[in-house]
Amino acid sequence: MSTVVKAAIIGATGYGGVELIRLLAGHPQVEVTSVVSSSSAGAPIAEGFPHLLEIQTGMLDDVDPALIKSKADVVFLATPAGVASKIAPSLLAEGLKVIDLSGDHRLKDRAEYETWYKKEAAAQEYLDRAVFGLCEVYGDSVRGADLLSNPGCFPTATLLGLVPAVKAGMIDPASIVIDAKSGVSGAGRGLSLGNHYAEINENFKAYKLNKHQHIPEIEQVLSDAAGKKIVTTFSTHLVPMTRGIMSTMYATMNGTYANEDFVSQYRNYYEGRHFVRIRANGTYPATKEVAGSNYCDIGFAVDPRTNRVTIVSVIDNLVKGAAGQAIQNLNLMMGWDESLGLNFVPVYP
Ligand SMILES: NC(=O)C1=CN([C@@H]2O[C@H](COP(=O)(O)OP(=O)(O)OC[C@H]3O[C@@H](n4cnc5c(N)ncnc54)[C@H](OP(=O)(O)O)[C@@H]3O)[C@@H](O)[C@H]2O)C=CC1
Ligand SMILES: CC(=O)N[C@@H](CCC(=O)OP(=O)(O)O)C(=O)O
After folding, report:
1. Which residues form the active site (predicted)?
2. Is there an atom of ligand 1 within 6 Å of 80 CB?
């Protein structure tokens, strides 16, 4: 008999939360039994999101751990930074499994979080307890976790594109430069001047240079892969599109390699992993080739003239970068096939 897990979503009215509802509506072993809002409890969610009519029919619940426990087994926290660290302890105390989509449980060092996020960090015991759910790298430790920290959108695209080459010693980790671009939904549903239509349409801008909160998360995993402390340059840009992240990464090679050497190393590393697709023959992916799906597509361009490789990695920020990877993590936590409920073909064109 197959298990059905009952799920609650806190932050259900945000982009990550609404995407969780969309994806879980098609999951054969998950039922969304509670959608939670800190500002609109008591209203039907479809009132604000008519695309969910007949799909999510319940009323929004209050943020009340005991109420959530009476309805659910697992809770997704799709809340702004600084919220999950406050709510997770009481949810865990109720015996719920917690999957945190925010940055609150990703950095193991409290001081690092406080430096980059400018907020109070979660208590150390919860940072120690949290498993960092970059599925294709740390998937083995996800099974059985009760506090799962879902990686950031930029780190997901970037790290999946770098870890196999760093682990194999094919590139010098100290030489890596990461040039990343995101669609506007990456900033969430809240309004801000920078994301206003007239500000971003037909515009392309760099932001948070050398100050982005995903820098320590990327460095934490790169250092783990390299076996020594790595610092890196990571630059973010906002692109006038709704969904999608492209991370373009430059690194000096430690030897003489061709594109196909990277292709075979990456195909080996990701063997059996459904959601990473490696491009061959010197081709590299575009964001539309993964839109709406849980895929991360990666391609390479070796330059023998400079002895550098350029690695291009793309994801849909709301799927592999957030809700899709969170469900992939739930699948692994439950001991299910990681692709359960996630086999979407990208939306094209
Ligand atoms: N957008 C993206 O591409 C990605 C986002 N993330 C991370 O996921 C999290 C959610 O992002 P996103 O959905 O884009 O953000 P949004 O701003 O779109 O949504 C966040 C939701 O959190 C709820 N919320 C706000 N304050 C509280 C609170 N104190 N208690 C409970 N709920 C609260 C709000 O809903 P209400 O008022 O109804 O409670 C709001 O709709 C963030 O931490 C983000 O950084 C991670 C990867 C990618
Ligand atoms: C386009 C855009 O603004 N993107 C956001 C991504 C936010 C995010 O996902 O934040 P956490 O992973 O830290 O929770 C940013 O660059 O800050």
Report:
1. 153
2. yes
